[in-house]
User: What shape does this take?
Amino acid sequence: MKFDKIDIKLLGLLQSDCKKTTKEYANTLGLSATAVYERIKRLERNDTIKSYVALINKNKVEKSFTAFCHVKLVQHTQENIRHFENAILKLEEVVECHHLSGDFDYLLKIHVRDMEDYREFMVSKLTAMPHIGSTQSSFTIKEVKHSTAIPL
Assistant: This one.
């Protein structure tokens, strides 16, 4: 789909704060509220805008320990991939899972309370899965940049 300059600016505004009114976006863009409303509906219909969410402060909900875990499967077969990916979808601690090229097959981003919770997650959930060959974990010391916005 082709986006004009107004679509791109509107998407940027929505990514920074989607709780504003259509009228507020219209004032910023120099359009009518109806025109902005129609643009937003079009972007939702064509799946450019997938959903609207609240971003939670992980410190307030005691999930401030962030780990990145590389996972290598024993064998990179279709069946192992399918089983692993289906199992990962059920783990609430895993907030992102990326299938990778290179030395490891997957990279997981995991949020838990602390190191003890991470150890419990690894022992009782992740490494208990069949077809896991090896894992390598790294832990966040300081989050320097975090954004959910897609550059436009």
Remarks:
- Residues 33-45 form the longest helix (13 residues).
- The chain has a mean pLDDT of 97.
- Residues 39 and 45 are 10 Å apart (CA to CA).
